[in-house]
Amino acid sequence: MNNVRDTTMRTLKIVAPLGLGIYVVLYLLANVACFSATTKTEVEESSITVAALFFGNVFGSVAERALSILITLSKPKFVIPSFVIRPSSCFNHRAREEIPLLFRNKFCASNWPTGKSPLPGLIIHLILSVSATLEP
Asked: Cβ neighbours of residue 34 under 8 Å, at least 6 residues apart?
């Protein structure tokens, strides 16, 4: 094993700047392509995203509509974990640490019924979210 050297740092010193450089070049090229296919007035007067406008100008109206639909469908995968799962998990962990809450700590600290997810925290978060949404 003495002849095997630890080359992790040497590899990182080469690969990290190279990867960052490639990323910057590709990002700049994507921006140049986007703004060469659209005009400033189109972007200002458009009611859709710049990416959908770019796809419409380059590939046609069907691609523009498809990209708009794909962007819309991708939103819940970011919203659900950040606004539903995390607060309920925090609620569950606070109950486990015996911080006084609105409801019984033993109920809130449990992972009932699956043993994997904080369902009581999700239910309480749902009640609070619906009441805040429906509040006049």
From this structure: 50, 51, 54
DSSP 83-124: IIIHHHHHHHHHHHTT---SS-HHHHH--TTTSSS-HHHHHH
pTM comes to 0.46
Dihedral of alpha carbons 29, 31, 34, 36, sign: negative
Task: Determine the Cα–Cα distance for residues 30 and 38; give it in Å rounded to an integer.
Answer: 13
Residue carrying structure tokens 């997810």: 117
The encoded tokens of residue 102 equal 């609105």
Rounded average pLDDT over 50-59: 87
Q: Which amino acid is at 70?
A: L
24 contact partners, CB below 8 Å, separation of at least 6: none
Query: In the block, which residue shows the tokens 């369902």?
Result: 119
Residue 9 CB partners (closer than 8 Å, separation 6+): none
Token code pair at residue 97: 């640490």
